[in-house]
Amino acid sequence: MHTHDPALTELVLERVRDRLRTDGAPLNHPGQHDKLESALSGLIGTDGNDPADVLGLYTDHLAPTVVGCDSPRFLSFIPAAPTQAAVLFDMLVSCSSIQGVSWMLAAGPVAAENEVLRLLADLAGLPGTAGGCFVSGGSAGNLSALVTARDTARCRRGYDEYARVRIALSDQAHSSISNTLRIIGVEPLLVPTRDHRLSGADLRAALQADGDPGNVIAVVATAGTTNAGIIDDLAGVAEVAREFDLWFHIDGAYGGAGLLAPSVRDRYRGIEHADSLVIDPHKWLFAPLDCAALIYRNPALAKAAHTQDASYLDALHTDGETEWNPSDYAHHLSRRARGLPLWFSLAVHGTHAYTDAIESALTLARESAALIQNTPHVELIREPDLSVVLFRRVGWTSHDYQTWSSRLLADQTGFVAPTGWEGETVARFAFLHPATSLSLVQEILDTMAS
Fold first, then answer.
1. Cys bridge to 433: 52, 81, 97, 338, which one at CB 3.0-4.6 A?
2. pTM, two decimal places
């Protein structure tokens, strides 16, 4: 089982080559439970199987049920479009069995990951002392950051370990924020917004109207909401956060990559004041799943909140300032070096290539908005801030949108899942893939005509 098998290696590598040769990932179709259950039944047992047969089962029955989020025709949720360099290097990371928990066990990979974190921190305007680690996604990043915010506030304010504290967030914050607060036992202060954008004025008004604002210890702003790509008033929120002594966390899981785009960089003014920041490279920085960057203004505060102590971990903990343990900066311990594929791709392609790819999605969003405005049967809901475009088909019901979306996927034209907006079902494009074209947008709009 642990001996080198050249035939098995070549078998899997040939499947990888086939996937990489594909000009644009296939959209595919959602799987059916009974067919998958039948295909998988009895496969795992006391005796093994011929690797070719198992790989054939994956190729014929499992792979076709993977809706390709890296397809140029995948325009739902937040797509992914990893570079070939990143995907290939991810294979090397996986087969290298890197335990990225500590400097002792993986100094080189940790140093390379930290170079990428430094790049992102510099783009945001954070100080040279900023740092953090890579985690699995925005949910893990938000959880770890807000644990740090909670523990830091309780310590600084002299609260006991279970004192009641609250965190302010807008009604547009990502679902993971509310979930995080429930997990960590912190209550929300929900701040209503005007036009779906959290402003400093909104936050100040909510705090002043609250009966006990003293137990609010942090605020969460968003740099690119998932549903509409809206960037909050980061500068205004930062000002109020300083005034009320609040930890300032920014969820830039989707939109943070826009820091590389000159055409929208000014919309992020105020991000330099963040105490913690999350950006997901597996979204708009073209890294493979799963990869999220978590960065702290003062990493020592995160280290105080997250370092795990046990006799079997003593060898990992040192006082050396240059010996960085990623496990000290999030809720995890064991971790893969998930930042390395991004590091490799950035080193191979350079940041200008990333800027061009991000700007192409922004340009497509603006062109698509103009196209929608000039198409009689659809209406643009709002001008895009980033690369998400919301629009409606005049006269359609929720059922009409669902039927249309299912038909688009069945025909392999595209995957465009409807969403909700102010109580109405609407259509939504999310552009990330550099190969998505305006002609595809026109093709999809044409399907809504009848």
1. 81
2. 0.96
